[in-house]
Amino acid sequence: MATKTKKKAESGNELLESSEALADQLTKGEQFLEKNKRPVFIIGGAVAIVILGYFGFNYYKTTQNEKAQTEIFQAQYYFEQDSLQKALMGDGNNLGFLDIIEDYPMSKAGNLAHFYTGTIYLKQGEYDNAIEHLEKFSSNDLLIQARTYSLIGDAMMEQGHYADAADQYMKAANHKPNEFTTPGYLTKAALANEKLGDVQAALKAYNEIIDKYEESAEYHNALKQKAKLEAKQKSS
């Protein structure tokens, strides 16, 4: 057994111990490259392009983020001051949210600009535009993403699309549920379902508030609305 192990070890070290064997292997490698020069270079070039493209793209995104973050500041200021048209379109010297979206589409600021733009359009009664921009926004922040779903629901409610609005409100309620924002979204879902005439869905939303969020500001209203709906069911 020891002899076999020794032979295997010797075989494994053959190239290192024999300069002739090593030279033979190198020659075979050179011959392979010579015979397959074109495909080897094509593959190598393709790999190099992918690597360069990856690092180039990351560098481009970083510079875009830095520039866009500087540019969006004034638009955010106008938004906070309720100068919505300047926030949206710019003031002639500074970019508005629509400019940020167009000039820096792959940046974090460009993504955030969709949220602001959708919110502005919602306030201005341009509901289709509001929905379009809010649907393009995404965030890892649990509160902001849920808020976005709710705003989409608000736009749909204004359009009379109560079923779609209820879906969006429930999407907001189910996105990382918490005692601070979830009860409000459930209340909105209940109201949308009431408008739709779906009493059972409305009751389900109110019951969720009652069962899970007793400390919330919406709790007593949920009890009241549930009682009204149940009384209405009995009298009909």
Structural commentary:
With 236 residues, the chain is an all-alpha fold. The protein folds into two domains: 29-138, Serine Threonine Protein Phosphatase 5, Tetratricopeptide repeat (Alpha Horseshoe); 140-236, Serine Threonine Protein Phosphatase 5, Tetratricopeptide repeat. It is 81% helix and 0% strand. The chain is built from 13 helices and no strands. The protein has helices spanning 2-12, 14-17, 19-35, 37-80, 84-89, 97-103, 108-123, 127-136, 142-158, 162-174, 182-196, 199-212, 219-235. Helix 10 packs antiparallel against helix 11 (182-196) and helix 12 runs antiparallel to helix 13 (219-235). The longest helix has 44 residues, at 37-80. It starts with a helix and ends with a helix. Mean pLDDT is 85; it is low at 1-12 and 52-60.
